[in-house]
Amino acid sequence: MEKIIYTGDDRTFDKVCSHCRMCELICSFTRFGQVNPKRSKIKIIRTQLDDAMPVTCLQCEDAPCARVCPVHAITKCADQYLAVDPDQCIGCGICVIACPVGAIFIDGGTGRALKCDLCQGDPQCVQYCPPRVLKKGKTTDLASLRSRQFVGVLLAASREGKGKS
Q1: Is the N or the C terminus of the chain less surrounded, counting Cβ atoms within 10 Å?
Q2: Which residues pair with 5 in a beta bridge?
Q3: Domain range 59-114, CATH architecture
Q4: pTM score, two decimals?
Q5: DSSP states of 7-38 as a string?
Q6: Is the separation of the CB atoms in 55 and 102 below 8 Å?
């Protein structure tokens, strides 16, 4: 299943999250017609003093949030993404507790659960991310990207080593 993946490489500082929070602004505007990061379905968290990382739904295959929902308000739509049905959600918060990454929260305005549903398959945060560190893809895509980055680092180091001898 595709999801939003963070491709930034904090080890090389290559295209890391700039914590501009544009993803949060675009999400809240696209989904609710208001610029309100508190209603965004993607969150930027600080990992260290100067580092940040986007957190969004992992679209888990086993979906612990959906499994624990007592009213079955979280379902997979079109075999592409998990979504919360706001008409079914009772706002109990059990899904918030079950989420392994903290990507679900209770909306203060509606009292219902909110989580990323990939904008029904076309995530706007990916399109508007200034450093281009958000991508839509599969976990294997990220692993492949990491492998290519690693090989690129090795090749660059190899070239530098040849130039010095």
Answers
A1: C
A2: 135
A3: 2-Layer Sandwich (3.30)
A4: 0.78
A5: --BTTTTBS------HHHHHHHHHHHSS--GG
A6: yes
